[in-house]
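Residues and backbone
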Amino acid sequence: MKVVEKYKVRGVLSVSPYYNRPDQRGIYEHFLRMSESTDLDIIIYNIPYRTGRNIENETLFKLSQLKNIIGVKDASGDIKQSLSLLLNSPPDFSIMTGEDIFYYITLLYGGQGGILASCHVQTESFIEIFNKVKGNDHQGAFEIWKKLSGLVPLLFEEPNPAPIKYCLKKMGLIESPEVRLPLVTITEKLQNKLDNYI
């Protein structure tokens, strides 16, 4: 953390400990030590299908009481867990989805938004949905979401971020869709699907 503090950053997004597969006590202690070691804001990233360990809501509730743990990027992949977290949201604790397909429902359940890969492709639409939900125009938000909901699965049909980089190149926003191994560029079949959508 001390290395990060040398730069002009306000906070960090920190993934749950992985490889050793700690229990909930170990996860709590990990983030406790991190919180104690810095004044930077910390957003916890719960993504068990990459780390091998889920951060349970009870652990998140305890961590939310620490001074600089301000939120979670919730990619638990468990809609019941996510909705329970949203319905019992700790005070002054931001719950943002990391599951792109849960963006709309997260907002409806009072979440603060998302940290999403797919919003690189249709940024304005994601912002408009957010503003409409917050403005109580749920039907307007839903109409936009219906159009986006077809795109999101396509962007994850092959490993992320290859489909997104392909779209950004087609839109003229980046120079190359190149990815580093072990990722590879997307198949022609997916290219055709994304071309039709774009």
In short: The chain is about 45% helix and 10% strand. Residues 10 and 189 are 41 Å apart (CA to CA). Residues 1-116 form a domain with the TIM Barrel fold (CATH 3.20.20.70). The radius of gyration is 18 Å.
